[in-house]
């Protein structure tokens, strides 16, 4: 006897009929305002540069399990050395992955012209005197010159990634598709920078990796939409371009939501249990996935509508065909 399968609860409809292009203008205005605000915020108040880009040192300070480190005393002890910005935050232990207050990460600046090794030893001595016997691990020191080079290299990596994505879409589709994709990528990157400034997330090499990942994910989603759009442009040669765009977005909407939703769930778990080092990385990626889906719908596709597409004699002023009811030739 054949086994009957469990009934599946369909949360997402198989076919949707949303008129995305109808709201492209207000969505575009909102995107422009948010991008301008994000760019301004990158200069004032500015990015919260991490040790990688600002120069300085970081180390883990820990006591035996169950013995709490008094973070205020650590901060006061290091601040008394006049080293500039000092950050102390409790983190989970590496061996138990539990935050019992016995481990903290300490970040501080190394003044220019001072010996880095000597400064680290002074900090260790001051912390030990303030909170008692502790152990140090994961000591990392980055000079100001190296940090400046890393920051420049990080921005160059982002620019090169966007340029390569533009070339890829340009050669695979048409110039207007490539232009729409790049506008969408820039939109995602700029808004991610705005998020970093808004929540004062630490901008480090991990954050650069997150933004590069966002670029790749956003481009993947955009290519899926553009593939369906190109297919429908060939199939419905007399359908107005705005209706073809709406049809293509509706046909790929369920796939986009499922893919983005599963990725966000994984990243949410990473943000909750991955510790301080991966928290900002996870938050930025979650935001990038959401805004990347938005840009594929309300940034990349509307740019193509503004530019127009040649369809071999297609009449864009033809009578609109109702979405979901178009008959295939």
Number of helices: 9
Helix content: 55-70%
| Amino- and carboxy-terminal Cα gap | 43 Å
Arrangement of strands in the largest sheet: 3-4-2-5
Largest sheet: 4 strands, antiparallel
Tell me the total number of β-strands: 6
- Based on Cα principal axes, name the global outline: elongated
Structural class: alpha+beta
Uncertain residue ranges: 1-9, 313-329
Mean pLDDT score, rounded? Answer: 79
- Based on CA atoms alone, the radius of gyration comes out at 26 Å
Q: How large is the share of residues in beta strands?
A: 5-15%
Instruction: Write the H/E string, N to C.
Output: HEHEHEEHEHHEHHH
Describe the structure.
This protein has 329 residues and is an alpha+beta fold. Helices cover 61% and strands 9% of the residues. It is built from 9 helices and 6 strands. Strands 3-4-2-5 form a 4-stranded antiparallel sheet. Helix 5 packs antiparallel against helix 6, helix 6 runs antiparallel to helix 9 and helix 7 runs parallel beside helix 9. The protein is elongated, with a radius of gyration of 26 Å. The relative contact order is 0.14. The N terminus and C terminus are likely disordered.
Could you outline the blueprint of secondary structure elements for this entry?
Elements lengths: L23 H23 L1 E2 L1 H4 L1 E7 L8 H9 L6 E5 L12 E6 L7 H16 L3 E8 L1 H29 L2 H24 L3 E2 L1 H31 L5 H33 L2 H32 L22
Parallel strand pairs: 1-6
Antiparallel strand pairs: 2-4, 2-5, 3-4
Helix pairs in contact: 1-6, 3-4, 5-6, 5-7, 6-7, 6-9, 7-8, 7-9, 8-9
């Amino acid at each position: 006897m054949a086994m009957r399968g469990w009934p599946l609860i369909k949360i997402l409809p198989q076919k949707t009929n949303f008129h995305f292009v109808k709201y492209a203008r207000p969505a575009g205005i909102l995107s422009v305002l948010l991008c301008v605000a994000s760019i301004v915020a990158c200069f004032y108040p500015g990015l919260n540069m991490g040790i990688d880009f600002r120069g300085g040192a970081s180390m883990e300070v820990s006591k035996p399990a169950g013995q709490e480190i008094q973070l205020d005393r650590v901060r006061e002890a290091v601040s008394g050395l006049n080293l500039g910005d000092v950050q102390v935050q409790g983190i989970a232990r590496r061996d138990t992955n539990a935050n019992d207050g016995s481990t903290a990460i300490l970040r501080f600046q190394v003044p220019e012209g001072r010996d880095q090794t000597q400064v680290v030893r002074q900090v260790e001595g001051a912390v030990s005197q303030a909170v008692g016997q502790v152990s140090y691990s994961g000591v990392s020191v980055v000079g100001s010159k190296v940090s400046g080079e890393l920051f420049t290299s990080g921005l160059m990596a982002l620019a090169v990634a966007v340029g390569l994505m533009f070339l890829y879409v340009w050669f695979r589709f048409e110039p207007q598709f490539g232009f729409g994709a790049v506008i969408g990528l820039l939109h995602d990157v700029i808004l991610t920078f705005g998020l970093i400034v808004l929540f004062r997330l630490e901008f480090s090499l991990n954050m650069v990796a997150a933004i590069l990942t966002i670029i790749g994910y956003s481009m993947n989603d955009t290519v899926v939409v553009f593939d369906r759009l190109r297919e429908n442009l060939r199939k419905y040669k007399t359908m107005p371009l705005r209706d073809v765009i709406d049809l293509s977005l509706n046909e790929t909407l369920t796939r986009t939501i499922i893919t983005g939703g599963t990725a966000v769930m994984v990243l949410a778990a990473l943000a909750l249990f991955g510790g301080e080092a991966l928290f900002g990385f996870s938050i930025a990626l979650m935001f990038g996935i959401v805004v990347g889906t938005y840009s594929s719908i309300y940034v990349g596709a509307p740019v193509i509508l503004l530019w127009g597409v040649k369809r071999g004699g297609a009449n864009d002023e033809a009578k609109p065909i109702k979405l979901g009811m178009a008959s295939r030739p």
